[in-house]
Structures are given as C-alpha cells and as structure tokens.
C-alpha cells in the first residue's frame, strides 16, 4: 500500500459520521443499512452515501440480498489496514459518542416499534455478531 492510499484511508475516516460507522461495523460485524441509520440517528440515504465512500476506499464490503444491503469492514489486506481496524475497535470501546451509538444499536432492531426512517416495519433480516455471518431467514 502506498502513502497516497494510506492518506486516502485516513481521509475517509476523518469524517465523523464515517468514523462512527466504521467503529459500529468493527464492534458489530455485518449490519444492514437501516440498523446503522438508527444507531446514528441519521436517514438511510445519508448513511448509504457515506458507506459508498467507504466502499470506494476499500474499507467496507457489501452483500445484497433482495432490497437489503449488509455492510461489513473489509478484511485487513496490509499491516496498515490491520492497525486501522485496531484503532476502530479502540474507538468503539473508548469514545463516548460511539458508545451512545452502540447503545442505540442494541436498543432495538429497525422497524420493531413501527417504520424506521420512513421504511416498512420489520424490513431487516436478523444479523449475528462479527465473524459469524448472516442468520438464515
């Protein structure tokens, strides 16, 4: 990985919303966009736009199943990328704002108490913890 690519990675994570998203993904594994949007208190379209920037930088990967998109952090390909992942995990454990995001994430699944961000109730399929893949259903 060259210096320009490393700088681009850090630039992408220099945005507070993208840092929060990356820390959530580091802590929670593969997650649907609507769950991320609820945790951040942002509309789906805004979260999707940030995730697209992160995907273009090689930080996240996506699986599409029907209308649902599930994002996860890309597997570290270099020692630099692995160090960035370690920093994200530290952010998830130590940053108060990200702790609040994690608490909102754990409170409920999107659509449980009605439409989430204007979408249909119960629109997400269940997901499981980091490294365990997606639940069938």
Total domain modules: 1
Q: How many runs of DSSP E, i.e. beta strands?
A: 3
Question: What proportion of the residues is helical, as a percent range?
Answer: 40-55%
By secondary-structure content and strand pairing, the structural class works out as mainly alpha
Instruction: Report the sheet-strand fraction.
Output: 5-15%
CATH C-level name: Mainly Alpha
Question: Stretches where pLDDT falls below 50 for ≥5 residues?
Answer: 112-122, 125-137
Following the backbone from N to C, one meets helices and strands in this order, namely HHEHHEEHH
Distinctive features:
3-stranded antiparallel β-sheet, Arc Repressor Mutant, subunit A, mainly alpha, disordered C terminus, single chain, 137 residues, globular
Report on the structure:
By secondary structure, this protein is mainly α. The protein is 53% helix and 10% strand. Strand 2 (60-65) and strand 3 form a beta hairpin. Helix 2 packs across helix 5 and helix 5 (79-94) crosses helix 6 (96-107). The longest helix is centred in the middle third of the chain and has 16 residues, at 79-94. The radius of gyration is 14 Å and the shape is globular. Mean pLDDT is 82; it is low at 112-122 and 125-137.
Outline:
The protein is mainly alpha-helical. The protein has helices at 3-13, 16-28, 33-40, 44-56, 79-94, 96-107, and strands at residues 31-32, 60-65, 68-73.
Layout of secondary structure:
Blueprint: H1 3-13, H2 16-28, E1 31-32, H3 33-40, H4 44-56, E2 60-65, E3 68-73, H5 79-94, H6 96-107
Antiparallel strand pairs: 1-3, 2-3
Helix pairs in contact: 2-5, 2-6, 3-4, 3-6, 5-6
């Amino acid at each position: 990985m060259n210096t320009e690519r490393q700088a681009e990675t850090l630039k992408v994570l220099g945005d507070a919303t993208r840092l929060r998203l990356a820390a959530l993904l580091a802590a929670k594994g593969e997650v649907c966009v609507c769950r991320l949007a609820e945790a951040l208190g942002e509309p789906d379209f805004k979260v999707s736009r940030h995730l697209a920037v992160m995907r273009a930088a090689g930080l996240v990967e996506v699986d599409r199943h029907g209308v649902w998109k599930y994002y996860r952090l890309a597997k570290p390909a270099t020692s630099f990328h692995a160090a960035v992942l370690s920093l994200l995990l530290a952010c998830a454990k130590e940053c108060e704002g990200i702790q609040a995001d994690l608490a909102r994430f754990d409170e409920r699944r999107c659509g449980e108490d009605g439409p989430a961000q204007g979408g249909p109730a119960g629109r997400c399929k269940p997901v499981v913890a980091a490294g365990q893949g997606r639940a069938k259903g």
